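Why do we bother with a discrete structure alphabet at all? Because it lets us treat a fold like text: something you can write down, compare, and reason about line by line. To make this less abstract, here is a complete entry for Olfactory receptor. Read it the way you would read a sentence in a foreign language you are learning: slowly, and without expecting to understand everything at once.
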Amino acid sequence: MEEAVLLNQTSLVTYFWLRGLSVNQKAQIAMFSMFLIFYVLTLIGNILIVITIIYDHRLHIPMYFFLSNLSFIDVCHSTVTVPKMLRDTWSEEKLISFDACVTQMFFLHLFACTEIFLLTVMAYDRYVAICKPLQYMIVMNWKVCVLLAVALWTGGTIHSIALTSLTIKLPYCGPDEIDNFFCDVPQVIKLACTDTHVIEILIVSNSGLISVVCFVVLVVSYAVILVSLRQQISKGRRKALSTCAAHLTVVTLFLGHCIFIYSRPSTSLPEDKVVSVFFTAVTPLLNPIIYTLRNEEMKSAFNKLVGRKERREEK
């Protein structure tokens, strides 16, 4: 009987209303133009990275295998939220169905958590490459790389299923306004018609703990790498420092959001939307810029790919 009542209460809310980023029409037009450019560049940049890595056999090494995974995740992660946000810019009623909201939350956390695990794996890859170069291809062989990829995708899927399950079991029978431009667990559970204190603790202990632990592991890994670099020759040191600096930039931008949002109770702060914009629209764009402009091998492979295409067109 109680389960039937809960299901009836849950089904009372069939749509949520998204507040978006602004109610000012001029601001919305400006943001539409800006985020459309960001999204198109995100798709082009990350897809080019994947194509270049697949095309150039010199890049068929663990570091670029994981980089291609990162680019794929960034495309998917951005696509979960940005197209909906762009479409809502021209809509007076920014509505999203309950099922679509749940789907958005599932894929948002799937790609976000998978990226956190991937960044941690990439840090380990750099640690082995720099601190144990003679053992690198033995430790990071293709079997290990594939197993790590399967593990991080599996971990992301389990995490997302757990969070989404906690959210959809709650009764939603009244408030239907989400103070953001996409559905996320902290904003959605605030609309539940029941006490969500225990759920909030579970979210902090899940998402928050994953973010903090991975961030600490990453910082420690790069600290060990930097100590190791002090003993290397200047040329190799500069290249390794450049790679580590790129990785640390990505880690700080991405995990900074996760720690800020998921390591505290579900309370709204003025900074939440700004942080969410960086998380969903800006960081996926910065990744290809950071990893390619500071990487001579990627630039060389891309120029080779473009040059071959031009030669084909001339023929």
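What the structure line is telling us, in plain words: The domain at 24-302 is CATH 1.20.1070.10 (Rhopdopsin 7-helix transmembrane proteins). Residues 1-10 have pLDDT under 50 and may be disordered.
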